[in-house]
Design brief:
This protein is an alpha/beta fold. It is built from 14 helices and 19 strands. It folds into two domains: 294 residues, FAD/NAD(P)-binding domain (3-Layer(bba) Sandwich), CATH 3.50.50.60; 106 residues, Flavocytochrome C3, Chain A, domain 1 (Alpha-Beta Complex), CATH 3.90.700.10. The strands form five sheets. Strands 2, 3, 7, 8, 9, 10 and 17 form a seven-stranded mixed beta sheet that branches. The protein has a four-stranded antiparallel beta sheet with strand order 12-15-14-13, covered by helices on one side. Helix 1 packs parallel to helix 5, helix 4 crosses helix 11 and helix 9 packs across helix 10. The radius of gyration is 22 Å and the shape is globular. The model has no long low-confidence stretch (mean pLDDT 96). It binds succinic acid. Succinic acid binds next to helix 7.
Length: 516
C-alpha cells in the first residue's frame, strides 16, 4: 500500500516550510538547532514534546572526555559490541565528534553531573572498557538533555513546534520528497488532515518498541517514520537487529511498558543473581555484569530457563541508601514505589525490547535514497551500531547524525526548490471491520515469542505467515483513527523484521538463531 488514506491536497489546509522534522527526541531537536536560523522549520511531535524515548534515557551519553580515554578506545568498544557488523566510517565519525556535541550541550546549558573539580563525572556500562558515560541528574540524563534542547528551540523564532500531530505518509513525486500528510491526534475519524510541503524532510521519529509486547519504549513508539519511509520507497537496512535490554523491572502480569533499571547500576557494581541468589555472569563472559548487552540478555534468559523463573535479581545492596538515592534517584524512587528498598532488597529484573539497530538506510550525512529525505536517530540505520548497540551510544548517535543532516541541508538548501505542490490518493474501497486492539496485542505477542532473544527459522516462518494474514485484514479496513494507522505500521514492521531475521541464517550480535 503506497498511502494509508485517501486525500486530495486541493481539499486540505496546506502549509510550507523549508524543513519538516518528524519527531521531538534528541535527534530531531538537535537537528532543528543546527539548521540555519533563517530557515523555516516545523518540528512535529505525535503527543507532547517530552513524550519520547530520549526523555526516558537514564544511563547517559558515551564520549571520550576524560584524560585516560581516547576516541580510539571508544571506537574499539563500539565495534566489539556491534559484533563486527558496524559501518566503520560511521563509528569513526561518531566517536571522534562525540566530545564536540557534549561541549555544544554544555554551551546551551545542559547540566551534566560534575566532579568537585568541575570535570564531567563519567560512569561505565556494558561493553565499555572505561568510564566514559556522561550523565545528568544521576539517572535522568534524557530528561535534562531534552529539557535544555527544548528550551533552546523555544527561543528560536524560525522553529515552529507542533504537538499532537501524527505523520501519516510522506508525499513524494518521482523519487523526491515533497512533504508530509499529517493528521491531528485530537480530531478523530476523518478530520484534522493537513499537508505540510517542504524542501527537506528529516525523519527522527524513533524506533519500533510497540512492535513487541514487553518494551522499555513509550507507548507512542510505533515505528511510524520507518513504515512511512518504506511505503514511499526508502531503503531499509539491518531490520533483524533488535536489542533487548537485560534489566527491566519485572512486574507480574503487567501490561504497561517496562521500567528500565539502567546498565549503570551494573557498571557501578550491581551483581546479577539467579532466583537462588547465585551470581552467574562470570560463567558466561569474562566481563561479567558489564559484558555487551546482547550477551548479558542471553545469559539472563538462559538462567531464567534453568531455574524455571520469570526473572533474575539485580543486587546493589552493598551501596548505601544515601548513595543510591543520590546516584540513581529515578530508579530508587520507582523501586520504592513498587515496595523495594534497593539498598536492602534485590531488584527482580527481566530482559525486554529496548532499541532498534535497523531502520531507514542513510549515508553519513543522513541522506536516504529518496531525494530530500533525511533520517537520524533510532529511525535511521547509519550502520554505527552493527548487530548490537554499545550502551549510551544512542543519544550520541542522535546528536552527531542529527547535526550532520542539518549541516548538509544548510549547504544545499539555497539551491533547492519545492517539489510539485499537488497530490492525491484514492485506495480501493475498504469496508471490513476488525478488532484493532486485539490485533495489535496479537502482533506484539507473536513478536515477543518468535522474534525475541532466541529465534528459530521454522517458528519465524509461521510467525510471518500470521503477520501477513493480519496485514491483509488491516488493509481491508478504512483506516480512520491514528490508533489504526499505528497498528498497520506495527504490522508492516513486524513483517519486515521477521523477513530479515529469517533471511539471516547465522547468529550475530542481537540476532541469535538456536536452529543453526
Ligand atoms: C541504560 O541506562 O541502561 C540505557 C542506556 C542505553 O540504552 O544505552
Amino acid at each position: 500500500m503506497r498511502y494509508l488514506v485517501d486525500f486530495d491536497s486541493e481539499q486540505l489546509p496546506q502549509e510550507k516550510y523549508d524543513v519538516i522534522i518528524i519527531g521531538s527526541g534528541v535527534a530531531g531537536l538537535y537537528a532543528a538547532l543546527n539548521l540555519h536560523g533563517v530557515l523555516s522549520i516545523c518540528v512535529l511531535s505525535k503527543q507532547f514534546m517530552s513524550k519520547n524515548n530520549s526523555y526516558l534515557a537514564q544511563g547517559g551519553i558515551a564520549a571520550a572526555v576524560t584524560e585516560d580515554d581516547m576516541p580510539e578506545y571508544h571506537y574499539e568498544d563500539t565495534i566489539k559490541a556491534g559484533a563486527g557488523h558496524c559501518n566503520i566510517e560511521a563509528v569513526s565519525l561518531l566517536v571522534n565528534e562525540a566530545p564536540i556535541d557534549i561541549q555544544a550541550l554544555c554551551n546551551i546549558g545542559t547540566r551534566f553531573d560534575r566532579n568537585a573539580d568541575g570535570t564531567l563525572t563519567t560512569t561505565r556500562e556494558g561493553g565499555h572498557g572505561r568510564f566514559r558515560v556522561v550523565h545528568a541528574q544521576g539517572d535522568a540524563t534524557g530528561k535534562e538533555v531534552i529539557d535544555s534542547l527544548l528550551a533552546e528551540c523555544r527561543k528560536r523564532t524560525n522553529i515552529k513546534i507542533v504537538e499532537n500531530f501524527f505523520a501519516v505518509d510522506m508525499i513524494t513525486k518521482d523519487d523526491s520528497s515533497a512533504g508530509v500528510l499529517v493528521k491531528s491526534c485530537s480530531n478523530d475519524e476523518k478530520q484534522g488532515y493537513q499537508i505540510l510541503w517542504s524542501k527537506k524532510v528529516i525523519i527522527a521519529s524513533g524506533g519500533i518498541g510497540q512492535v513487541y509486547k514487553n518494551t522499555t519504549n513509550t507507548d507512542i513508539i510505533t515505528g511510524d517514520g520507518i513504515a512511512m519511509a518504506y511505503r514511499a520507497g526508502a531503503e531499509l537496512a539491518d531490520m533483524e537487529f533488535v536489542q533487548f535490554h537485560p534489566t527491566a523491572l519485572y512486574k507480574e502480569n503487567s501490561s504497561a511498558n517496562s521500567f528500565l533499571i539502567s546498565e549503570a547500576v551494573r557498571g557501578e557494581g550491581g551483581i546479577l543473581r539467579n532466583i537462588h541468589g547465585e551470581p552467574f555472569m562470570k560463567n558466561y563472559h569474562e566481563m561479567g555484569e558489564i559484558a555487551p548487552r546482547d550477551i548479558v540478555a542471553r545469559a539472563i534468559f538462559s538462567e531464567m530457563r534453568k531455574t524455571n523463573s520469570q526473572f533474575v535479581y539485580l543486587d546493589i545492596t552493598h551501596k548505601s541508601a544515601e548513595h543510591l538515592k543520590n546516584r540513581f534517584p529515578t530508579i530508587y524512587e520507582k523501586c520504592a514505589g513498587e515496595g523495594f528498598d534497593i539498598s536492602k532488597d534485590y531488584i527482580p529484573v527481566v530482559p525486554v525490547q529496548h532499541y532498534f539497530m535497523g531502520g531507514i538506510k542513510t549515508d553519513l550525512l543522513g541522506r536516504t535514497n529518496i531525494k530530500g529525505l533525511y533520517a537520524c536517530g533510532e529511525a535511521a540505520c547509519t550502520g554505527v551500531h552493527g548487530a548490537n548497540r554499545l550502551a549510551s551510544n544512542s543519544l550520541l548517535e542522535g546528536l552527531v547524525f542529527g547535526r550532520k543532516a542539518a549541516e548538509h541541508i544548510n549547504t544545499i538548501i539555497n539551491e533547492t526548490e519545492f517539489v510539485e505542490q499537488k497530490a492525491k490518493n484514492k485506495n480501493e474501497p475498504r469496508n471490513k471491520k476488525v478488532d484493532i486492539a486485539s490485533i495489535r496485542a496479537e502482533i506484539r505477542e507473536i513478536m515477543d515469542y518468535h522474534a525475541g532473544i532466541e529465534r528459530n527459522g521454522a517458528d519465524m516462518i509461521i510467525a510471518l505467515s500470521r503477520i501477513e494474514a493480519i496485514i491483509e485484514r488491516l488493509e481491508s479496513i478504512n483506516l480512520r483513527k491514528v490508533y489504526e494507522m499505528e497498528t498497520i505500521n506495527i504490522a508492516y514492521l513486524a513483517s519486515l523484521i521477521l523477513k530479515a531475521a529469517i533471511e539471516r541464517k547465522q547468529s550475530i550480535g542481537s540476532h541469535f538463531r538456536i536452529d543453526q
